[in-house]
Design a protein that fits this description.
The chain is an all-alpha fold and about 375 residues long. The protein is built from 18 helices and no strands.
């Protein structure tokens, strides 16, 4: 069959644009963070739209479609409109869009910067304005494949995209919904350039959750993946702030957070990094390890005991030194607490003596 004539391209794109690009209905009142298929607002015109999407997909992948000619009609505005459709609540539509956008990215090389820019702008609106978007997961899955294909050395624009768009995606409360593809994108960057682990770890620590235990468990899992790709030099640069956060997680009131933090010592590579810097790490975490020995959860107590044994095997003199400093500091803190309690008692007695009948400290 002869390739489509030049006259066919504008007619095809006209048909596609008029059938696909539309104002999406307002988001339903359902809790979009809950993946409940029963409450989804499915597109009533899907039987018609599916035919059009199938046509678009076959048009893009066809060997008879010449990218050099078609790019004049499948232009920047067309790309932007495609990305905007990812807001659709219908997962069937987003699935088609994911496949089509990925194919367009692979075939139309000149449109690649525009596609990345459109995704970037979508992320900005999500992070700083709405914190609600139905297609974030699909867009991140596309980016995972795109980042995997980046050539080395990484271009400045790609690193800028990591810093400005991807890393701030850890900020929204609903990060659990899309954390897996987000984490994959981040690790792809660090695999290609291990020096990026510094900026990634700094950002993770900056956005570290304080009251959301589910999010903290996810962060600890991602932290382990990043540390596996981190070189000793970058590890040492963030040693103290990193383990201050890990110590806080070990001492968390939520046993799953504490357990996940202690699992870091099950990773041989991370243990080797810690071993080389044990003189800086142990003084930070020893309080958490000692406190957890009597933890109500048996798994947390056992893991804490195992980590203590690891440090002892690494350097027994260092352990004894840090343990002595910890015990001394604990005794000193207890003395201060007793002194403060005594001063409050004296003050209570003074108030009671000068103001008979006044209730002091609830007594």
């Amino acid at each position: 069959r002869p390739p489509p004539s030049l006259q066919a391209y504008p007619d095809i794109v006209f048909m596609l644009s008029n059938n696909l690009f539309r104002a999406l209905p307002p988001n339903s009142d359902r809790d979009w963070t809950q993946e409940d298929d029963e409450d989804l607002m499915l597109e009533p015109a899907w039987p018609h739209l599916q035919v059009v999407y199938e046509f678009l997909l076959r048009f893009i992948v066809s060997g008879e479609t010449e990218a050099k000619v078609a790019k004049k009609y499948i232009d920047v505005q067309f790309m932007t409109n495609i990305v905007n459709l990812f807001e659709s609540e219908d997962p069937r539509e987003r699935d088609y869009l994911k496949t089509i956008l990925h194919r367009i990215y692979g075939k139309f090389m000149s449109h690649r910067p525009h596609i990345r820019r459109a995704i970037n702008n979508t992320f900005f609106r999500f992070i700083y304005e709405t914190e609600r978007h139905n297609g974030i997961t699909e867009l991140l899955e596309i980016l995972g494949s795109i980042i995997n294909g980046f050539a080395l050395p990484l271009k400045d624009e790609h690193v800028k995209f990591l810093k400005n768009a991807l890393l701030p995606m850890h900020k929204p409360k609903c990060v659990a919904l899309y954390h897996q593809p987000l984490s994959y994108c981040i690790t792809q960057f660090v695999e290609k350039d291990p020096t990026l682990s510094t900026i990634v770890l700094e950002t993770l620590l900056r956005f570290w959750p304080q009251t959301n235990s589910q999010k903290e468990v996810l962060f600890l899992g991602e932290l382990e993946e990043i540390l596996e790709l981190t070189q000793a030099e970058e590890f040492n640069d963030l040693l103290v702030p990193l383990f201050v956060v890990i110590k806080r997680s070990i001492m968390s009131n939520h046993f799953q957070v504490s357990e996940r933090a202690l699992f870091l010592w099950n990773n041989e590579y991370i243990v080797s990094l810690i071993g080389h810097s044990r003189e800086q790490v142990l003084p930070v975490v020893i309080e958490a390890l000692e406190c957890n020995l009597n933890h109500w959860n048996a798994a947390v107590a056992d893991l804490s005991s195992n980590v203590r044994k690891l440090f002892m095997e690494m350097d027994m003199p260092l352990w004894e030194k840090c343990k002595k400093e910890y015990d001394d500091a604990k005794r000193e803190g207890e003395k201060k607490r007793i002194q403060v309690d005594g001063q409050w008692s004296k003050l209570d007695n003074l108030v009671a003596a000068t103001h008979p009948g006044r209730v002091v400290n609830g007594g």
